[in-house]
Design goal:
single chain; mainly alpha; 6 helices
Length: about 130
């Protein structure tokens, strides 16, 4: 049984998908300044999960190209909606295998980067991911 915070993330994901059902590629790629477009947001969330649950947790990234395309601090882009949904589905499916292993104790631990623990705990990253 997944940790309740993992269940909460999955609920947030399902609401995200539900709310964007039926959005066309044209609409998803339209920027309403100063915001990024919807397809960028989908890719950005995929990038975050790929970074946390792929790279930090397991040492691998499923979609490393997302970092340059929709990563934090990168220039605005308007990627194709289908590409971003495909990446998001790949990344979240792979993340789920890791997330299913999380325990209350594991949420208190810290991932390592360059031989040092990162500032945020696994639990903090999970909450950041859910509310992002």
């Amino acid at each position: 049984m997944p940790h309740p915070l993992v269940t909460q993330l999955r609920f947030a994901r399902s609401e995200f998908v539900r709310c964007l059902a039926g959005v066309s590629d044209d609409d998803a790629r339209r920027r309403l300044l100063p915001m990024n477009c919807i397809s960028w947001m989908i890719g950005h969330l995929a990038n975050q999960e790929d970074a946390y649950w792929g790279f930090l947790a397991q040492g691998k990234r499923m979609h490393p190209e997302l970092l340059q395309l929709v990563g934090f601090g990168k220039p605005a882009s308007t990627p194709p909606l289908a590409d971003m949904w495909a990446a998001w589905q790949d990344v979240t499916a792979a993340a789920d295998a890791y997330l299913d292993t999380l325990t209350a104790e594991a949420l208190l631990t810290h991932f390592m980067r360059n031989g040092e623990p990162i500032d945020e705990s696994v639990g903090t990253l999970l909450l950041r991911n859910t509310y992002h």
